[in-house]
Amino acid sequence: MRKFNVTGLCVPEKHYMVDISKKLERIVAMIEDDEYFTINRARQYGKTTTLSRLDEGLRNQYTVLQLSFEGVGDGAFSNDKAFVQFLIKKIATELEYGNHDGGQIELWADTSVLSEGDAFDNLSDKITELCRTSDQEIVLMIDEVDKSSDNQIFLNFLGMLRNKYLLRQKNRDVTFKSVILAGVYDVKNLKLKLRSDEEQKYNSPWNIAADFNVDMSFSAEEIATMLSEYEKDYHTGMDVERMSRELYFYTSGYPFLVSRLCKWIDEDGDKKWTVDNLRTAEKELLKCRNTLFDDLIKNIENNGDLKQLITNILYYGYTQGFNLSDPVIQKGAMLGILSEKDHEVAISNVIFETYLYDYLVSVNSREHGIMGPERNQFVKDGGLDVLLILTKFQDFMRSEYRQEDEKFVERQGRLLFLCFLKPIINGTGFYYVEPETRNSTRMDIVVAYGGEEHIIELKIWRGDAYRKEGIHQLEGYMDSRGAEVGYMVSFSFLKEKEYRSGWLKEDESEKKIFEVVV
Q: Is 318 helix (H, G, I), strand (E, B) or coil?
């Protein structure tokens, strides 16, 4: 039986895979149009698997040279000659793998010509001869190019390919039909270190590259193709369409996250393809360390402006237009952390958002010295006593932050609540924030615990009219989640405010809402 794979290359005969044939068709069309381009996507986004599938599909029509800079030592990039020798050896291996004419391979592998003259000029001549004598047009693919993309030698190589491409346009040279570079960074716009004093400047030796606009995330419909194949093997009775939608809801189609959740349900979740078990899979995923999450934290800690933007979005409800000319937004999007939603900047998926909430809550709990209450008092018969949590939070705010500056509480209120909540549900339950409700005055939090969902709205007090509007908004969200009971935490900054709590009844609604004012 096939398995779900989350490490390395996915192989159709061994692994359950999404049908990406339509994506491949668009990429093949770019190759047939002689285009050079870069597939730049975040870590574990299926780049290597996509190149492998392309390789398989192209070999009947083209000679495909599929290389990778993964694990290549610094010696290969120490000087022009060393790099050219390394490249000749790698391409010779590919030619041999493709069962090409032995004489052609021997001619290509001969490096004696490198003893004289410029190494890249000699490499250019060899590429011309190889492409001229080949029975098929040649496509060059290089994976993990950003492993060495801050290197001047690599820049020289791109410049040589660019020059040959331009000469081909004038019918003055013969070269590769298409060149595909794959990595996290967009080589076309990469800021490269070019001088020993580490002064940085922009250089675009790859400005010939076409824009790569193929969406490599998985849609719900594409996820369904993988689940359907699984269901044919196991006959679990899964509602494929619903599970595909739920997987997309949590992951926004991020390939690694989709496969990781499926893998847990298949191997650790007793093959129970239910929404509740999917939530358990998400909880387990958020608890474990993996290279993707490690990169996520490393990237925001190494980029202070990006961390501040994320904090502003998540905790303060700030909005900002999505504009890739902004270098902070561009970097966040390139790293797979940020995306565009309704023309505004958003965290790219629910799992990343929840993980970042947890991380920032942990950091801020330590910085503010917030120690969560003893959790057992809030758990009854395996369920969560949300009323007690809210009243205890009210007591906490009244005793600890009554005299604090109003602006501090307005900015930090939702963060303080999550710092208070997290230790109570940690290890057994989890929460996520409904992105549609996150703004400067309102946030809906969904807490999953003991097989139940609890909806809690955090709202800034803006008078009775806003309060009634907030109640109706909460009821609307409760309808969308099928909840009969909801909760509201209202942050009031009136000088004579009353720390009240109780059940609300609005317009004879059958929905029950419990409110605390802090």
A: coil
How far CA 125 is from CA of 113, 118, 157, 168, in Å, comes to: 10, 11, 13, 13
- Which has the minimum average pLDDT: 88-92, 251-255, 306-310, 411-415? 411-415
Give the Cα separation of 12 and 292 in Å (integer): 23
How far lies 92's CA from each of 52, 74, 85, 367, in Å? Answer: 18, 21, 11, 57
Rounded Cα distance between 425 and 237, Å, is: 31
Q: Domain 21-202 is in which class?
A: alpha beta
Supply the mean pLDDT for the chain: 88
- HSE at residue 23, side-chain half, CA atoms within 13 A, is 20
Helices then strands, counting H and E runs in the chain, come out as 17, 16
pLDDT in tens, 206-260: 889 999 999 999 999 999 999 999 999 999 999 999 999 999 999 999 999 999 9
Query: What is the enclosing helix (H) or strand (E) of 447?
Result: strand 442-449
Q: Which SS3 state, helix, strand or coil, does residue 440 take? A: coil
Q: Please answer whether residues 438 and 446 qualify as being in contact, where contact means their C-beta atoms are separated by less than 8 angstroms.
A: no
Residues β-bridged to residue 201: 192
Return the number of other C-beta atoms located less than 10 Å from residue 195's C-beta: 9
Distance of CA 406 to the CA centre of its chain: 36
CA–CA separation, 479 and 511 (whole Å): 9
pLDDT band at 464 (very low <50, low <70, confident <90, very high): confident
SS3 content of the chain, % helix, strand, coil (to 5): 50, 15, 35
- Give the integer Cα–Cα distance in Å for 340 and 237: 36
What are the backbone dihedrals phi and psi of residue 9, each rounded to the nearest 5 degrees, phi first? Answer: -75, 135
**In this structure, are strands 379-380 and 383-384 parallel, antiparallel, or unpaired?**
antiparallel
Closest to 55 measured CA to CA, from 79, 31, 33:
31
- First-residue to last-residue Cα distance in the chain: 56
316-338 pLDDT per residue, tens: 778 899 999 999 999 999 999 99
Tens digit of each residue's pLDDT (9 = 90 or more) over 333-371: 999 999 999 899 999 999 999 899 889 888 887 876 777
Task: Answer whether residue 189 shows pLDDT above 70.
Answer: no
**Residue from 357, 303, 290, 358 nearest 333 by CA:** 303
Q: Tokens for 389, please give them.
A: 């949590």
- What is the Cα–Cα distance from 300 to 307, expressed in whole angstroms? 5
Q: Using CA atoms, how far apart are residues 348 and 284, in angstroms rounded to an integer? A: 20
What's the pTM? 0.85
Q: Which of 158, 442, 162, 426 is nearest to 319 (CA)?
A: 442
Q: Which of 468, 476, 463 is CA-nearest to residue 511?
A: 476
Least confident of 115-124, 167-176, 228-237: 115-124
Q: Are strands 344-347 and 338-341 parallel, antiparallel or unpaired?
A: antiparallel
